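Deviation from plan, reported transparently: thiamine diphosphate complex.
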Amino acid sequence: MATEILMPALSPTMEEGTLAKWLVKEGDSIESGQIIAEIETDKATMEFEAVDEGVVAKLLVAEGTEGVKVNTPIAVLADEGESPEDAASAARAPEADKADAGAEAAPKPQAEGATEAPAPARSESASDQAPVAAVATDWPDDTPTRSLTVREALREAMAEEMRRDDTVCLMGEEVGEYEGAYKISQGLLDEFGARRVVDTPITEMGFTGIAVGAAWGGLRPVVEFMTFNFSMQAMDQIVNSAAKTLYMSGGQVPCPIVFRGPNGAAARVAAQHSQCYAAWYSHVPGLKVVMPYTAADAKGLLKSAIRDQNPVVFLENEILYGRSFDVPEIDDYTVPIGKARLARKGDDVTIVSFGIGMTYAMEAADRLADDGIEAEVIDLRTIRPMDTDAILASVLKTNRLVTVEEGFPQNSVGNHITAVVMERAFDYLDAPVINLCGKDVPMPYAANLEKLALVTTDEVVEAVRKVTYR
Amino acid sequence: MAARKAAEKPNVSGEDLQRYYREMLLVRRFEEKAGQLYGMGLIGGFCHLYIGQEAVVVGLAAAARDDDKQITSYRDHGHMLVAGMDPKGVMAELTGRKDGYSRGKGGSMHMFSHEKHFYGGHGIVGAQVPLGAGLAFADRYLGNDRVTFTYFGDGAANQGQVYETYNMARLWNLPVVFVIENNQYAMGTSTKRSTRSPSLWERGAAYGIKGEMVDGMDVLAVKAAGEKAVAACRAGDGPYILEMMTYRYRGHSMSDPAKYRSREEVQKMREERDPIDRVRELLVTGNHASDDDLKAIDKEIKAIVSEAADFARESPEPDAAELWTDVYA
Ligand SMILES: Cc1ncc(C[n+]2csc(CCOP(=O)(O)OP(=O)(O)O)c2C)c(N)n1
Ligand SMILES: [Mg+2]
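Because the crystal trials were delayed, the predicted structure below was used instead.
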C-alpha cells in the first residue's frame, strides 16, 4: 500500500500554502523525522518533516506551486517491498486547485460624504445638541489607495513613528530577533537596532512596569503582548500604574505608552488564549482603548496612539492580520482616537460593532440588503473615549440598534452603549436594543463548540429581523 | 552543558530498562502521530510536542509514587501518558472529541485527570508554579506524605511568580519538586538571550532551596536525582529544584519556523544524545533485549498509538449542550 503525504496545516489559521521547495527527489529513501520540504504559510517559511518512512515514489506537486490547499496529496511514498512505480500509479492525481484568489475582499465602497444632520429631536429626552454623525471615510475621494494587510499596516505605523521620533521604542517577547510571534515587527530590529527594539524574557509584569517607568522617564514605549491574554499578568501595572498616575500626580506625570497585541479568539486556541479585553480595559478611567478593523484604521490609529500623551490599549486580532484593505497613500496618515466610522449607510437599523465583530456586521448587512432591509453599520474603532454621538445620530434616524462584539455578555461594551442610548434617546427607540456577544462560557476547544461560542453573522441577521419586526 | 554521565555499568534491572524504553517510545510515537494529525487538520490551535524530552518524565515517574501529583505547562502530552492516562483519551482531547479527557473542551494545552493526580496542562507561562506549590500545601496541611512535581520551562523560570513561590515554598517546607525542563529555548529565545544567570537551579539558593543540575537526556540520571528530591520532600525538607538539561527536537509549536537554531544543532542532539537510543544501547549491550525483542516493543507501541489515533478520529464531537455545562460546580 502506497502512503500519500498530504499538504500539512502548519499554523492554527493556515488553509493553504506555497510548496516552496522539495528537499527530496523521486527515488530517495526517507526516514521519519527527515525534513522533506519547505512550505510557506501565511506567516513564515516552515520545514516539513516526514512522519512515515519509505521511498519517494512520486512528487505530485511541483515546487513553487502556490495556493496548495491543506490535505492535498503532495507526494507518494512506496512502502517496504513495494515498487515505486506501483506506488505512484496507485496514488490518485491531485485535484486541480481552484485558486480562490483574494479570499477576503476589501470592504464594499461606501456612500460618499458624511451623513446628513440628524433628525430633529422627537422629544426633550434627546441630547441638547444634535449629535455629530460618524464620517464615512477619513480621506478625500480622489486619494490614491493601495491594498495592505492589517499586519503590514501595523508594521508601517510603527516604523514611521520610530523614524520620526527617537523616543519611540518597541518592547516585548520575541519582537526582535524572531520578528514577532505574529510577524508584526518584521524588519524593525534590522532598521532600528537593539537599542530601540527590545527583546524581553517572559516576564510580563516586569517589562510592563519597566515600560511604564520608561514612559514617565521621557520615552514613548510600545509594549507588545504576544497576545492580550498575557496582559493579565501585567494588568496591575496597566491599571494601577499607567492609567492613574496622571491623576494621582495632579497632572504632573503623564504616561505616553501603547500596549498592543492580538486580542480575542484566534482559531481553536481554547479558553486561556481566547478572550476579548475591550470591555475589561474600557472600564478604566485614564486608559484609552482602541480596536481597529480595517488596515487603514490599524495604521492611522496606531500612529495616533503612539503620539498620544495617555496610555492606549490597542487591541488587534490575529484573524484580521492577514486581511487586506485599501489604505490611502497619504504621507503621515493618522486617524483620530475617539471617532467612529460610518462603514455602511442605511435607514432601517443601526448596527454598532468594532474589531472582528465588523466582519459579521458587514456580512449581515449585505444579506439583509438582499431582503430590502438597509442597515447602517458603525465601526466604533475606539471603545474609550467612545463616540456616542455617532451612535446617537444614527439611532435618531433608524430607531433601532443592535450591537455586535466577541467578548462575554455581562458588562459588555454593548451594555454600555445600550445604557447611553436609553438615557439620551429613549423616546427614539422603536424596539429594545439587542446586544450580541460571545457566549457566556470560557472558550471551548472542540471545533463545533467553538463555533457555537462565537457570535455569528446568522445571529446578527436574526437580531436585526427581531428589532425591525421583519 | 554541564551534564552528568550515566554510570558505565548502571545498577538497573533489564526489566526496568525495558519499561523506561517502552514509556519513552510511547511518548515519542504518540507525539509523531499528533504532529501528523495536526498536519491533516484533525488537531487545531496550538500543539506543543515533547519529542526529545522523554527521559525527564519517564525518569521522574520511576522515582515517584503512584499517588504523587503532577502539574505542568502546555507541553503536557508526555506527562499525561507517563502518569498512566489513557492514550486514547489524550488523543481524543487533541482532536476535540467527546471521549477526550476534558470532553473536548480543553484541548492539547488544558487537560486534567483527577484520578491520575494530573492537574494540567496550563496555557499561561509560569502560572502552574504557584499552583503546584498549592497542591503541596494541601498535602502538608492534610498531613499525608505525597509529593507534587511542578514542571516548568527555562522561559517560565523568568516569571516573577516563580520566585514568590520559591520563597513561600521554603518558608513552609512544602513537599514540592520544582522541575525546570531546560530545553534551552523559550520559543525563539535561547537561555543565553533571556538571562545572565549561569544556571537556573542555583537561583533557589537565594531562598534556601537545595537543588541540582541533571542530564535530562539520561533517564537513569533523572531517576537518581528524582529519588533524592523526593526523599528530601517526604522527610519534610522540601522543596527541591531539579534543572533538567534537555532539548526539544521539534519547533516550539506547530507554527514555529525555527530560524533561531541550525538544523545541524538539532541533528547533532538527535544523533549523539537521544534518550531513547541511549536506553536501547544499554538494553542491547547488557543483553537485556534482543533485536527481536526491541522490534516487538516497537510494534506493540505503534499499535497502541494507531489505535489511539483511530479512536480519536472516530469519537464524535461533543454534544452541543456541552457548551453550557461545567461553568459552575
Ligand atoms: C504569560 C505568558 N506569556 C507568554 C506566553 C506565550 N508563550 C507560550 S510558550 C512560550 C515559551 C515558553 O518557553 P519555556 O518556558 O522554556 O517552555 P518550553 O516551551 O520550552 O517547554 C511563550 C512565550 C504564554 N503562553 N503565557
Ligand atoms: Mg524551554
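The pocket of thiamine diphosphate (ligand 1) is lined by residues A 173, 202, 204, 226, 230, 233; B 73, 75, 123-125, 153-156, 181, 183, 185-187, 252 (CB under 6 Å). We consider this an acceptable substitute for the interim report.
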